[in-house]
User: What shape does this take?
Amino acid sequence: MERAKRWARTIKRDVVALWLAARDPRVPWYAKALCAIVAAYALSPVDLIPDFIPVLGYLDDVVLVPLGILLAVRLIPPPVMSELRAAADLRLERPVSRVGAAVIVAVWLAAAGLLLWWFWPVQVR
Assistant: This one.
């Protein structure tokens, strides 16, 4: 159980470090883009797949977010990532991504609109 708690703390720290990396001039642009996407999604208060959906609801939290973090961390130079992790450890509060939440809500609205358009009965005159 202690190992799982340490892993969760590491994930939280790395998400904050990626949020910082998205603003760091020493990070390449492509890594910044991926860091911004991963951090925005991980810090968003809204999930793309809601947790109440069996199995799939937790799939993004347990698989997609850690894989995104792993890929983004590999794109950042190791000395820079070490600095960002240290800075993330010093932060008392975790940032919240309102932009990430807005994007996810927009995806849900677009999906709902597409389903409505797809299944709405068309009257032929």
Observations:
- The mean pLDDT is 83.
- Residues 2-119 form one domain.
- The chain has five helices and no strands.
